[in-house]
Amino acid sequence: MREQAQLKCTSRRCLYCCCCCAGTVFLSSVIVLFWAYWACMVVSRHAGGISDYIPPASQPAARKRRGERHIRILSYNMFLRPLYATDKHTSAEDDFKDERLEFFLREVDQFDVLALQEVWIVCAERRFQWFLKEAVERGFQHWSRSGCYPLQGKPSDGMLLILSRHPLLRHAEVTYDSCSSIDCHASKGALAVRIRPFSDVSCDFELLDTHLQAGRKEDIVEARAGQLSQLRAFVDARGSTLENISTVIAGDFNVDAGSGEHRQRVVGNFPDFFDVLLADGRPSFSTADFGGVATAEPQKVARRRLDYILHKPGKGSRRSPNSSVIEAFVVQGQKFTTLSDHFGVTTTMAC
Question: Which of 52, 116, 230, 285 has a CB 3.0–4.6 Å from the CB of 199, allowing a cystine?
């Protein structure tokens, strides 16, 4: 009898311990999930009103562009991954993510609209919120970001962020149906907004920000082909074609400029758009594949052009000729040599 009583007691203790362990694991999992997706829950998908931003005297370049009614656009893959994702040779410094972001914020007075890629929000709440706060203080009071869809089997967001000094309207997002390999864990797609420069409806133009499937294998190329077809359908569904509104598509296409894939899939899907760098006589510059943010002389090492701004002329703001350049954002005197593993592409609209 005594042995049976001891056995029951021991069984109850084991059950109690198991329940405690299970409860601890469950609670820890909930805490981790809340931490990972906290910014998704507390940061608005888009923000800003209908008022335009008037730059202060401390931003003379921005004031000058406003006086000239120019809108400077930057497309930039910022390479701001979460804390657990780093390159091997810069992992000890976390890829200099915070330092690079601080340097980038010193450059934003040059621009009025930022179409950014690889700005992670999942597992990067502190950095994302700080970046937004600093950008707003510098005049980028309007934004649109990728949504988070973990319940749809996408642990990571699409990592897209549009920041603007000018009002944004008609916010929309598409998540691409086709994907391959690790990219299927992210809700890669495109953001779309209607930009209203100077709060003047006659200056409206459409902007789409996208980041396509990475890689060169056959199945990856096919997935990217599906994404480009879906991007074209998304553009057409916006009504910008029927309204004949000037339209800009910006982003990291992960397609080599001049390749067969480029001619068939990019030019083939967007024959009514032109590449602003080619239009302005800058066909030979590369924007990526130079080995990371600590590579010496990255401009000499870059081997591929993967980043684009495409434009379809129409009503509203027009593009200024000979205004398109590649922005390398090279840094001197630091352990990192550039602000990303990509260079940016810029162009200017006018109204």
Answer: 52
Q: What range does the domain containing 281 cover?
A: 46-350
Q: Is residue 258 pLDDT above 60, yes or no?
A: yes
Pair 171, 53 in one domain:
yes
240 and 180 in one domain? yes
End-to-end CA distance of the chain: 93
* Residues belonging to the chain: 351
Beta strands in 113-246, from DSSP E residues, in sequence order? 113-119, 142-145, 161-164, 168-175, 189-195, 205-211
| Token representation of residue 76 | 């930039």
Phi, psi of 162 (to 5 degrees): -110, 125
- Report the range out of 41-50, 82-91, 99-108 with the highest average pLDDT: 99-108
Helix (H) or strand (E) holding 85: none
Using one digit for the tens of pLDDT, what is the confidence trace for 119-162?
999 888 899 999 999 999 999 999 999 988 888 888 889 999 99
User: 195 and 64 in one domain?
Assistant: yes
Based on the fold, state whether residues 123 and 155 are members of the same structural domain. Answer: yes
Task: Name the phi and psi angles at 217, rounded to 5.
Answer: -65, 160
Q: How many domains does one find in the chain?
A: 2
72: burial class by Cβ within 10 Å (0-12, 13-18, 19+)?
buried
190-231 per-position pLDDT tens digit = 999 999 999 999 999 999 999 999 999 999 999 999 999 999
Total-model pTM: 0.91
Give the list of residues 6+ apart from residue 25 with CB closer than 8 angstroms, or none: none
